[in-house]
Design brief:
Strand order of the largest sheet: 1-2-3
Number of domains: 2
Protein name: Deacetylase sirtuin-type domain-containing protein
Domain Deacetylase sirtuin-type: 1-118
CATH superfamily of the largest domain: TPP-binding domain
Helix content: 25-40%
CATH topology of the largest domain: Rossmann fold
CATH architecture of the largest domain: 3-Layer(aba) Sandwich
Strand content: 5-15%
Shape: extended
InterPro entries: DHS-like_NAD/FAD-binding_dom, NAD-dep_sirtuin_deacylases, Sirtuin, Sirtuin_cat_small_dom_sf, Ssirtuin_cat_dom
CATH class of the largest domain: Alpha Beta
Radius of gyration: 18 Å
Keywords: NAD, Transferase
GO molecular function: histone deacetylase activity, NAD-dependent; NAD+ binding
Number of helices: 4
Largest sheet: 3 strands, parallel
Length: 121
Amino acid sequence: MISSEVYSFYQTVISVGCEEDSCHGLLRPHVVWFGETLDPDVLTEVEKELDLCDLCLVVGTSSVVYPAAMFAPQVSARGVPVAEFNMEATPATDRFRFHFEGPCGTTLPPALARHESEIIA
């Protein structure tokens, strides 16, 4: 069941109208809502990028919500390091090289910060 706060937010987001004179359409963020499917062209592009990546960061619920949940294990199976940032361990955590437990706003910045041993050319 969807909480009243989430429903209220969702209704607010989808009821914001376009301000162009002749449009009168509703604006919507560039997101995929629960229950919606991803554009097949987007999935094709994701597959291409996954083939090229040398590091995968899984931030938030992406390690349990499909189809995004299948991306990191696919990359990990190729030997690419995967770092999961989440409030708790997930069913996929054991497949990843790194797991950072806690709020992403707290765990992500230090993980992405430049290490003192890095040389900037």
